[in-house]
Design a protein that fits this description.
The structure holds two protein chains of two kinds. In chain A, 34% of the residues lie in helices and 30% in strands. Chain A is α/β, with parallel strands linked by helices. The chains are: A alpha/beta, B alpha/beta.
Chain lengths: 305, 415
Amino acid sequence: MNEKALVLKGICKAFAGHVAVADLSLEVPRNSIFGLLGPNGAGKTTTLRMVMDILGPDSGTIEILGKPADHAARDRIGYMPEERGLYPRMVLEEQLVFMAAIKGLRKREALERIGPWLERLSLADWRKRKTNELSKGMQQKAQFIATVLHQPDVLIVDEPMSGLDPVGMDVMREALIDMRRAGATIVLSSHQMETVERLCDRVALINRGQKILDGSVSEVKARHGKNTVALAFEGDGSFIESLPGVAKVTDFGQYFEVRLEDGTDPQPLLHEAAKRLKLRRFEIVEPSLHDIFVEAVTGHGKEAA
Amino acid sequence: MSPKLWAVIKREYVERVRTKAFVIGTILGPIIMGALMVVPMLAARSKSKPLRIAVVDGTGDLRGPVEQALRDAVDDDRKRFDVQPPAGEDAEAAETACKKAVLDKSLDGCLSLPKDAVSSAKASYYGRNVSNFSDIRTLERTVSKVLVTRRLTSAGLDAARVDDLTRGLDLRTVRVSEQGEREDKGAAMLLAMILMMMLYAGLLMWGQAVMTSVIEEKTSRVVEVMASGVPPTTLLTGKLLGVGGAGLTQYLVWALSLLGVSVASGSLGATGMPEVTWLMLASFVLFYVLGFLFYAALYAAIGSAVNTAQEAQSLAFPVLVPIIVAMVCWPAVMQSPDGPLAFTVSMIPGMSPLMMFLRIVILTPPVWQMLLSVALLVLGILGAVWFAARVYRVGILMYGKRPTFPEIMRWVRHS
């Protein structure tokens, strides 16, 4: 069995006037949770649309589950796009049966599977109600059920947590993890870096249609080095920015994340900070995906400009 | 048929057929249609009671023959006048009295012949209702005949011979068709108009239903989810067939009730009903189906290119042009169903569903013309679907500014 769930090779796509995706290659290993990151307009949605054959690439090849992408292979994917939607006037149950039918699932099986999913996402009481009577969060959950009802081998979800309350987020996270345990591969596109950091095995960062980072979460972080300091304190920390060896400060008020220039010893910073502030925490940490993201995107932006 | 296509068709069909508008429309259609056809017939038949009229004679010697002629006057084999004696012998007093009687409803009308009625050929009729044309026409014809007879006899001709010589024309209008002859009293024209209007309304209504449905899929953003599971052409095909099927269901109910009304009235022996032939019914359904596919494909293309129904209006206008031209042309086509204009408009794809159908109802055109019209329409449909599929593929994912017509043409060229 091929070890890759998705393989994209040299994908290009241009629209009138601008290049959306430029020579993009990606490999998503089977049975992993893969984070697809990038700022707005980076080409993520276009890439996912090409995987789903909603758009055709100008060049490049796409393989799904070890075979060239075709309709049968795409039926093994569950796709929850960023622009999600349900038919507003359809009864929830019929809607789910229909959405499963266009992925090739028979009505009888769909009906059997709907019950447990509705229970799990606390939608059981809404089974016979029209979709437009559901709240936004409920519609989000309904959309998720519609995406997974045919038990896809690959699940592509764009911002699965948006619009959910904390309880809903937990349920969604558990559902994703369970599906991975059951053997599915999950491609997760999100701007919620903490979610991505905790859930994903691997990430790829796209900017301006090109891949600028790729690898397992720990590799990506290691590549950035252990040169970030987390500081929690009371007092005015504004002097830190001007200390020698400090590359960048992310200011949260009473909590700073400080990036040091490569090869800088953090000890002088500790001394200075201890002298002038009431320190509650001083820790050398891995950079957060958030920082890596911001740095990679803005840095790349400067180069390109 | 692929299960996906079937699922899309079924959804579109079921969602439409379940709406209240559909149920009401399907039931009301035949009722309105029946009313339009049966009411004039019943009205003609029951034409109320004969009119009670009095004759006031200023000439002094015409009352007898006029009253006799009115008593004998018939329309549709029924006597139309119940002649009452006037209030007195003096013409002026009698006329005043009769008008009063008309007002207090003891009389329906009063015919007044002036002193010089024979020479001047003038008379007056006073009534509460003077717009019942067929009765007035009968009255006019009857009195005129008495006056003519009087003039001829006073010129020395024998009364019986005059009667014989001046017999009026009794014109029967008979529609000749392969199915045989049938007396027709203008009802065929009425039927042709009603059916064509139904076809016209149906094409627009169901064509726009497809457009609305495409716009709704964009507005609710469900279209990307759909496009990820179903190729756009399958989605478009399913939509056309599903919505078209719902429209067809309604049309079949209507067509069958039309047949029912026709058969029922035939068995009741009603003479005023036009004949509904199988050819008419079949072409009613066929031209609905073909016309629908033509217009619905274009409407789907428009729906996919816009964001809201308002935006669709200006783009939809060019699509309406052929159908509007057809509606302008129909009186001329009706007048001369074999003329060059009728031939031309019944061949142009956007117009042929209405115009060829109209010709078939009025006067069965040559078979080659019907076949040519259908063949051209089918070609038109293929072109429209090809165009729509290309616009649809690109349009459904486009949000924001409404594309201009040149932009849409670029999508067609590049997709």
